[in-house]
Amino acid sequence: MESFSPTAIIGIVLLIGAAMLWDRSKRGGKSSSIRGVGSSMLQTYTRDLTQDATKGTLDPVIGREEEIERVVHILSRRRKNNPLLLGEPGVGKTAIIEGLARRIHKGYVPNTLKGKRVLALDLTGMISGTKYRGEFEKRMQQLTSEIESMGRQIVLFIDEIHMIEQASGAEGSMNVSDILKPALARGDLQAVGATTWKEYEQFIKPDDALNRRFQPVFVGEPTEEDSFAILRGIKQVYETFHGVEIPDETLRSAITLSQSIKDRFLPDKALDLIDEAAAKVSIEATFSHADLKEQGLTEGQISERIEREKKRLKDVINELEELGEEFPNELEIEKAERALARHLKQLDKTEALATRTETLPKVTTEAIQEVVDQWNKKRS
């Protein structure tokens, strides 16, 4: 069988990735933002996690049932019903909110929460676009008013909530937290905050009025066994994405080897090791012709892989066509469509020349160790 250039395939994959990133940035996250509401702040600066749960695009949440249940209890209170997730970076604070969104979507919540929408605030984007004194405060005031007008149907997730206090001090104008406090006290704005212990002690705790309006939910670093259960529950997502097999022993190796990374926490650091190692193994297995020949190939498996790649390419082209209807005069969209169409034809012509292994490549302990070595080398 005649082989085709790995460079050509890499070019196709990169072009697909670039097109998808361009599409997402052009939409401004519109596919996951709140719909059906004519409110510019919500459309621009929030992402609808309940809508993501409906689409099935959220990762599974494993091992955080107790914390999710506590958040549900606090949100269901009559007063002071705003949870504040406190924990180190990477322990899974955002995953808890995604778990809440999944529960609301499935209806596994009290009547007080049924039908509500969990919106994640892009606080960094809201702050970074401001130029003049008071502009950030004005945006936050407008956002709060829009949420209040929706009749308590929104739960606003504010990750890195301490940035509100930081931005207020830097701005030198009205304190942003003073905009939120009345709405939080009345219950017209229901929020879930998330921050680390360090930022909580430095920024949130000194503001006694703001601190009283939130109820702490402690999110600790999971044990190695709990981390293994989390990784085992989510590994299928990464196996499917990278086209690899991740054995259980590799998960345990990732947890053990991640202990050498001192400034990060489980399960996030182990998951990052697995993700990068899986990407490395997938790329090597896909584009190394010599390795593929040694593993053994079948025509049927080759055809299956190419068909999947063609389907992905067609999906991107369809998304670009939809985007072209929204932005009919956008030349970049037309160029991207033509380029992707050419590569789709190229895939049709070179399908018989593709190579693919019968079995999925495995992510091994050695692959994890290589990633750890690279990380530690950069830190030294």
TrEMBL record:
Residues 303-353 form a coiled coil. GO terms for biological process: cellular response to heat. InterPro entries: AAA+_ATPase, ATPase_AAA_core, ClpA/ClpB_AAA_lid, ClpA_ClpB, P-loop_NTPase. One of its GO terms (cellular component) is cytoplasm. The keyword Endoplasmic reticulum does not apply. Keywords: ATP-binding, Coiled coil, Nucleotide-binding. It holds the Pfam family AAA_lid_9. One of its GO terms (molecular function) is ATP binding. Residues 79-224 form the AAA+ ATPase domain. The keyword Signal does not apply. PANTHER family: ATP-DEPENDENT CLP PROTEASE, ATP-DEPENDENT CLP PROTEASE, ATP-BINDING SUBUNIT CLPC. This is AAA+ ATPase domain-containing protein. It comes from Candidatus Uhrbacteria bacterium CG_4_9_14_3_um_filter_50_9.
